[in-house]
Design brief:
Chain lengths: ~450, ~290
C-alpha cells in the first residue's frame, strides 16, 4: 500500500517536470477593440478583425463600435476608471496629448512590443504618420490607424468655365486667389471655401510653411509649450482669407467638415478637405474634380515642407494580463502588414501607415485610377519632417480648436480684427496649456 | 369630506414607495452628490491625479465674463422660447377649442410635433434655413431680401434655435392649454356673454384667469425646458456658434465635461444649474401656487 503511494507520487512529479520542460502553448485570450468607425469604414474594421481571428486560433479580437470619437474616448475613460478598460481603443488625434499624459493608464506601444518580444521596426512606418504618435525620441506610443491629411479639391468644370487649365491646379496661394476670382467671375457664387479652419488653415498651414504652431516643437518636447500662431505669416494668411470673404471670393461654410455641401453643390469651385473625404467627394460630386497639394506662399523660405496628419490611433491600456497583451501585440503586427494596410487604404481612403503598403498599392497600379490618394501621401513624404512639421501635441487641444473656430467666426463677423483675434487665441490658449501643464506635472 | 384611506400596516407605505425612492436615489441623488463632490477638485481625464481646490472651480467661473455671457444668452433663450411657445400654443388651443369642423383632426396634428425627438426637430429646421438649399432661406431672400446666414450672424443663429425649440414645445403647451380650456365651466362664459361681454373680454376676464394655474405650471416647465432640454438643438444646429453666441449653459456643461474633459469645471457648472432648477421648483411650489387665482 505504502510503496504504491510512493510510486504514484514519483510519477506525478515526473509528469510535472516533463510538462514544464515542453514548450508551453500560448495561452488563448480574447480582447476587445473599441472604435468609432461607421459605415464602410466600420465594415473594414470588422473584416480586419475577422481575418485576424481566422489567421490563427489562439487570440480573438472583437471590434466594438462605441459611437463618435468623443463618445469612444469617454467610454474608454469611464471603463478605465471602473477597472474595465478594453485592450485596444481608438482615440482621435486631438486626444493624443491627454492619452500620453495619462501615465499609468496607457501602455506605450514600443514598451508593449518589447515586453511581448514581438518583432517591431519603427522605421518601416511613414515618419510623418508615426511621428505624430511618438515621443520626441522617436518611441512609438500608439499605433496610427486611420490617418489622413488635408488636400485641395477643385472642380474641373468650374476651371474650364473660368478659362483655367482643368489639369493644372494653382500651386501657390496668390495663384489660387486669382483662380478663385476668375471662378466667381464665371458665375459661381464664390471662388473657394475650406473645412476645418483650425486643422487645415492653421495647423497644416504652419507645418506646410515650416513655421511653428507653438514652441517646444509644437509641444512634442514638453508640456511647457506656448502657441505661436499670431506670427506674421498666419496673420497675413487669415487677413487674405478675411479680405477675400469681404470680396465674396471666399465663402465660410461652417465648422469641422460642414463646408462640404458648398463644394459638392457647385457653389464654389475650390475646397480644402481631408483626403479621408475622398470617397464622399466621389459619391457626391456630379462634376469631374481633381485633388491637388495644398498651396503655399512662394516668399516663405522652406515652403512647401510637409503636411501633417489627422485621424486616430490605437492605444493599449495598462493593467491587462500577459495573454491579453500578447494578443494586442500580435494584432498590431497583423494590422501593420502591407496586405492589411493596402486593403484598409483602398477600402477607406485613409493613408497606409507603412512604406511597404504604399509601394504594394502603387505596384498594383491603384493610383493611376485614384491619383488623389497619391497626392496626399506625397504631400506627407515631401520632405523629412522638421520640428515644425511633425505634428501638433497640446493638451486641451479640443478647447484650442474650439477657440480658433469661435474667433474665426468673430473675425468674419467683424467683431474682432485678424491680428487681435489671433492674439486672443494665443493668450487664452496659453492659459489652457498652463492649466493642463499644472494638472499633469 | 373625502374618505381617508389608511394602511393597516405601518411598513406597507414605505415598502410601496421604495422602488421609486431607489430609482431617485440611484439616478438623481447619487450623481448629484458626485457632481457636488467633483466640483471641488481638478482632475485629469483618467482620474490619476486629483487636486482639491476648494471653491476654485466656482471662482474661475464667476470671474469669467464669458460665463456670464453664456448665462445671459441662456436666460434670453429660455424666456424667448417660453413666451413664444406658450403664446402660440394658447392661441392655437383657443382656436381648436371652438366648435369647428375637423377640430379633432387639428388637435391631433397640433400635438404631433411633441413626438418628434428634439434632435430631429433641430435637423428639420436646420434644413429649412440652410442658406443654400433651405426653403425658408430662399423665401427670405426672395421676399424680403434677407441674406440668411446663421453661420456668421449671431442674431440669425439665436432666432433659428429659438424657433426650433419653440416649435417643438408648442405641442406640449397646446395639450395643457386645451385641457385647461375644456375645464373652464361653460356656464361662466355663457353668463358673461349674457351680461354683454364680447369674445375678447370673455377671454381675458374669464378664461385667462381661470387658466392661470396651467399657465404658471407651463411657465416653469418651459423655462426648465429652455434651460436644460434644448441641448440637442444647440448641439445639432449651431454648435454654440457663431463665436459663442448660442453657447447656452447646458451646452457648455456638456462641451467642457465630455469633449474638453475639464471635469472639475463641468461639475461646478452643473451644480450651478442644479441650484437654478431647484430655485425654479421652489418658486413654483411655494410662491406661485399660492398666488394663483383658482
Amino acid at each position: 500500500m505504502k510503496t504504491r503511494n510512493v510510486w504514484v507520487l514519483a510519477l506525478a512529479a515526473l509528469a510535472m517536470v516533463a510538462m514544464s520542460c515542453a514548450p508551453k502553448p500560448p495561452e488563448p485570450a480574447s480582447i476587445e477593440f473599441w472604435h468609432a468607425m461607421t459605415g464602410k469604414n466600420g465594415e473594414a474594421v470588422q473584416k480586419i478583425c475577422d481575418d485576424f481571428n481566422a489567421s490563427q486560433d489562439v487570440y480573438t479580437v472583437t471590434p466594438v463600435y462605441k459611437g463618435s470619437y468623443v463618445d469612444t474616448m469617454n467610454a474608454g475613460i469611464a471603463a478605465f476608471r471602473a477597472g474595465q478598460a478594453p485592450a485596444i481603443i481608438q482615440v482621435y488625434e486631438v486626444g493624443t496629448a491627454t492619452m500620453m499624459a495619462a501615465k499609468g493608464a496607457v501602455k506605450p506601444v514600443h514598451v508593449l512590443m518589447k515586453e511581448m518580444k514581438e518583432k517591431f521596426d519603427p522605421k518601416a512606418y511613414i515618419p510623418t504618420i508615426t511621428g505624430y504618435y511618438s515621443t520626441s525620441k522617436g518611441e512609438m506610443i500608439s499605433i496610427p490607424f486611420n490617418s489622413s491629411t488635408a488636400v485641395m479639391y477643385y472642380n474641373k468644370e468650374a476651371f474650364a468655365k473660368a478659362g483655367l487649365d482643368p489639369e493644372k491646379a494653382p500651386a501657390t496661394w496668390p495663384e489660387l486667389f486669382e483662380a478663385a476670382r476668375k471662378i466667381k467671375a464665371a458665375g459661381y457664387e464664390a471662388g473657394f471655401t475650406t473645412n476645418w479652419i483650425s486643422w487645415i488653415q492653421l495647423e497644416n498651414f504652419s507645418a506646410w510653411h515650416d513655421v511653428p504652431f507653438g514652441t517646444l516643437s509644437n509641444g512634442f518636447d514638453g508640456l511647457g509649450a506656448e502657441l505661436k500662431i499670431n506670427a506674421d505669416l498666419q496673420v497675413q494668411h487669415l487677413t487674405n482669407l478675411y479680405n477675400l470673404s469681404k470680396e465674396g471670393v471666399f465663402k465660410y461654410g461652417g465648422r469641422e467638415n460642414k463646408a462640404n455641401p458648398l463644394f459638392t453643390g457647385g457653389v464654389v469651385g475650390i475646397h480644402f478637405e481631408s483626403i479621408g473625404g475622398y470617397g464622399n467627394m466621389k459619391a457626391n460630386c456630379k462634376f469631374p474634380f481633381g485633388v491637388a497639394r495644398l498651396p503655399y506662399y512662394p516668399d516663405v523660405a522652406n515652403a512647401p515642407q510637409n503636411s501633417i496628419i489627422g485621424g486616430a490611433s490605437l492605444w493599449a491600456f495598462e493593467g491587462k494580463t500577459e495573454p491579453e497583451y500578447k494578443a494586442t501585440a500580435k494584432f498590431f503586427t497583423y494590422l501593420s502588414s502591407p496586405e492589411v494596410q493596402a486593403f484598409w487604404h483602398k477600402t477607406t481612403g485613409y493613408l497606409p501607415i507603412t512604406i511597404a503598403a504604399y509601394e504594394l498599392t502603387k505596384g498594383e497600379g491603384y493610383y493611376t485610377e485614384n491619383p488623389g490618394l497619391e497626392v496626399a501621401i506625397q504631400q506627407l513624404l515631401n520632405k523629412p519632417p522638421t520640428a515644425n512639421s511633425m505634428g501638433i501635441r497640446f493638451g486641451y487641444m479640443p478647447q484650442i480648436r474650439e477657440l480658433e473656430d469661435q474667433t474665426w467666426e468673430d473675425i468674419l463677423a467683424d467683431k474682432i480684427g485678424v491680428k487681435a483675434g489671433l492674439d486672443k487665441i494665443v493668450t487664452e490658449g496659453n492659459i489652457k496649456l498652463r492649466d493642463f501643464e499644472r494638472l499633469n506635472k | 369630506m373625502a374618505k381617508q384611506y389608511e394602511f393597516s400596516s405601518k411598513g406597507l407605505p414605505y415598502l410601496l414607495v421604495l422602488p421609486q425612492m431607489a430609482i431617485v436615489l440611484v439616478f438623481f441623488f447619487w450623481p448629484s452628490a458626485q457632481a457636488l463632490w467633483q466640483s471641488f477638485f481638478v482632475q485629469d481625464a483618467f482620474g490619476l491625479r486629483t487636486q482639491f481646490v476648494w471653491f476654485d472651480n466656482y471662482l474661475k467661473l464667476f470671474r469669467d465674463p464669458e460665463y456670464w455671457d453664456s448665462f445671459g444668452v441662456s436666460a434670453a433663450f429660455a424666456v424667448t422660447v417660453a413666451l413664444s411657445s406658450m403664446g402660440i400654443a394658447l392661441f392655437l388651443a383657443a382656436q381648436a377649442n371652438k366648435k369647428i369642423r375637423g377640430a379633432s383632426f387639428y388637435k391631433t396634428m397640433l400635438t404631433w410635433p411633441y413626438a418628434v425627438a428634439t434632435m430631429v426637430a433641430g435637423v428639420l429646421w436646420l434644413f429649412m434655413f440652410n442658406p443654400n438649399v433651405g426653403v425658408v432661406a430662399w423665401f427670405l431672400k426672395d421676399a424680403f431680401g434677407v441674406e440668411w446666414n446663421h453661420l456668421l450672424d449671431s442674431t440669425h443663429a439665436f432666432l433659428l434655435i429659438a424657433v426650433a425649440a419653440s416649435w417643438k414645445q408648442i405641442a406640449y403647451n397646446f395639450v395643457f392649454f386645451l385641457a385647461g380650456l375644456q375645464s373652464v365651466p361653460a356656464t361662466l362664459v355663457e353668463a358673461a356673454a349674457i351680461d354683454g361681454a364680447g369674445s375678447f373680454t370673455r377671454f381675458w376676464r374669464i378664461i385667462f384667469p381661470m387658466l392661470s394655474p396651467t399657465t404658471f405650471y407651463l411657465l416653469v416647465m418651459n423655462l426648465v425646458y429652455g434651460f436644460f432640454e434644448t441641448f440637442p438643438i444647440v448641439h445639432q444646429v449651431t454648435g454654440g456658434g457663431p463665436g459663442k453666441a448660442t453657447s447656452i449653459l447646458i451646452y457648455k456643461v456638456w462641451r467642457d465635461g465630455v469633449v474638453n474633459l475639464e471635469l472639475g469645471s463641468s461639475a461646478a457648472q452643473s451644480v450651478v444649474l442644479m441650484i437654478l432648477v431647484i430655485g425654479l421648483t421652489v418658486l413654483q411650489f411655494r410662491f406661485i401656487e399660492r398666488k394663483v387665482t383658482y
